[in-house]
Specification:
Largest sheet: none
Number of domains: 1
Number of strands: 0
Distance between the termini: 62 Å
Strand content: under 5%
Shape: globular
Structural class: mainly alpha
Order of helices and strands: HHHHHHHHHHHHHHHHHHHHHHHH
Oligomer: single chain
Helix content: 55-70%
């Protein structure tokens, strides 16, 4: 009799099948768009920026592969695909209990992870540094979910330093999420807030030093010529030359990049993505209403402050023209912030996770926006989602 009950306990029923189908949507979306973006040469070019010629911005990732004397285009693709596989494995490991918890929660997490600006976007631009930077961010979330001890927080700070050495934009792209978590995690009371403060000071110092001393130590053209000897990829010169730009030069470069084609493409992308962005920010505001009683947020403007922190990557549009990368980083921050707090609520035995998912499940607009985000596909680097991309290829509206 007991053996029959045990069999029924582990029997794969209709509900289990439903959870499995919903839970693998982010994975299937990721596989579907893997390495599909045109203009990937810019991303691959960072594999050849190393510390061999002295300290430089954006050189950590390339240095990790400097032992490879020659990196073919196929090898570069495999490196990008492996990075995507790593982040997918880590994300599913981090949120495994929530993704396959219940139908309502599974739908929410599938929306958060398979949205236009999250896993499908990273898969689509698999050759860019955004993917390994996201891996460092995910490692940080794994550490923080387990513990907010001194060791965990300092380790998160060191991972963030690695992220800045990989690309200085990490400071505005992904560190704001960690800052928002430091503010809202109830395990970090005022007495324990010293370690997040120390960790943040380390990260700020690393960012300032990288900006100050990170210009190339040799002529960018020489660097570019050396890099071409190690690959059959048609490398993008911009990846080397912008690494040597002063702030003024970067602004001049940016003005030239924001032409009519790119602005029209960006505008069209944002317009067609409004339902997805509306759903994402609405879900964030719903969550902030619930956690607004956190001591660190006892202010009338707490929700606005947190929303601004999580949206900080959009500030990068003033110094870099890869607008949809910055928008996607904001989407990643918001998605993972919501996912993290739902998961932490479950860890602490709080009831708000179930009530929050139940409340969201009763809103028809959420399902419509979820389906819409799947249909329009991932964001590109400069502009575009898959719907806009089709028109761009037909009419040459903007560079993807």
């Amino acid at each position: 009799m007991e053996s029959v009950q045990e069999f029924k306990k582990y029997q794969f029923d209709g509900e289990s099948l439903t959870l499995l189908i919903i839970g693998v949507i982010p994975l299937l979306q990721t596989i579907h768009y893997l390495g599909d973006a045109p203009g990937m040469a810019y991303g691959y070019s960072h594999l050849f920026i190393t510390y061999d010629q002295g300290f430089s911005k954006r050189a950590l990732y390339g240095t990790a592969f400097s032992f490879m004397n020659f990196i073919s285009k196929d090898a570069a693709k495999l490196i990008g695909f492996a990075a995507v596989a790593l982040v997918v494995i880590m994300i599913y490991w981090l949120f495994r209990r929530e993704i396959f918890h219940s139908t309502q929660r599974s739908i929410l997490f599938s929306f958060l992870l398979s949205g236009s600006g999250v896993l499908p976007h990273l898969s689509f631009i698999s050759g860019f540094l955004d993917v390994p930077m996201f891996a460092l961010l995910t490692m940080s979330l794994i550490l923080l979910r387990r513990s907010t001890s001194f060791i965990s927080i300092i380790s998160v700070g060191l991972l963030s330093v690695f992220g800045i050495l990989m690309h200085e934009a990490y400071f505005l792209m992904f560190y704001p999420l960690l800052l928002a978590i430091y503010i809202t995690d109830t395990r970090l009371n005022r007495d324990a807030f010293i370690w997040p403060a120390v960790s943040t000071m380390i990260v700020v110092a690393a960012f300032i030093l990288t900006i100050k001393y990170g210009n190339l130590k040799v002529d960018p053209q020489v660097y570019f010529d050396i890099a071409r000897l190690r690959t059959d990829i048609k490398l993008n010169k911009d990846a080397f030359f912008v690494n040597n730009n002063s702030f003024g030069n970067q602004l001049s470069y940016l003005v030239n990049q924001y032409d009519i084609k790119s602005i029209s493409g960006i505008s069209l992308t944002l317009l067609t993505s409004l339902p997805y962005l509306f759903a994402l920010y609405t879900i964030l505001l719903m969550l902030l209403k619930i956690i607004s009683k956190i001591p660190n947020l006892k202010t009338e403007y707490g929700s606005y402050i947190l929303t601004s922190i999580l949206s900080a990557p959009i500030l990068l549009t003033f110094i870099g023209h890869d607008v949809m990368r910055w928008v996607s980083a904001a989407c990643i921050n918001i998605s993972l912030f919501v996912a993290y707090h739902i998961a932490r609520g479950e860890d602490d035995g709080k009831e708000f996770a179930a009530s929050f998912c139940g409340d969201l499940a009763s809103r028809n607009w959420f399902y419509a926006c979820f389906i819409f985000s799947i249909v329009i596909g991932p964001f590109g680097a400069i502009a575009g989602n898959r719907i806009v991309g089709k028109f761009a290829l037909l009419f040459g509206i903007y560079p993807v």
